[in-house]
Amino acid sequence: MTTSSNGRVIRVLIADDQQMVRQGFTVLLNTQPD
């Protein structure tokens, strides 16, 4: 999870009705450091 410069947690919600798009975002985001 990422925190901003003031120490607050930043949360992002990504919603899509296509399973392939959701899986693609999951793979992409899981390869990035928190």
Task: Summarize the structure in words.
- The chain starts with a strand and ends with a helix.
- The protein has one helix at 19-30, and strands spanning 2-3, 9-10.
- It has 34 residues and is of the alpha+beta class.
- The chain has a two-stranded antiparallel sheet.
- Helices cover 35% and strands 12% of the residues.
- The model has no long low-confidence stretch (mean pLDDT 83).
- The longest helix has 12 residues, at 19-30.
- The protein has one domain (1-33).
How would the blueprint of this fold be written?
Blueprint: E1 2-3, E2 9-10, H1 19-30
Antiparallel strand pairs: 1-2
Main traits of this protein?
alpha+beta; 34 residues; 12% strand
| Secondary structure category | alpha+beta
What proportion of the residues form beta strands (DSSP E)?
5-15%
* Residue windows where pLDDT falls under 50 for at least 5 positions: none
Q: Share of helix among residues?
A: 25-40%
Secondary-structure element order, N to C: EEH
The global form is: elongated
Rg is 12 Å
Count of distinct strands: 2
Oligomer: single chain
Ends: how far apart? Answer: 5 Å
Q: How many helical elements?
A: 1
Number of domains: 1
**Mean model confidence by pLDDT:** 83
Strand order of the largest sheet: 1-2
Largest sheet composition: 2 strands, antiparallel
Concise description?
The chain is of the alpha+beta class and 34 residues long. It has one helix spanning 19-30, and strands at 2-3, 9-10.
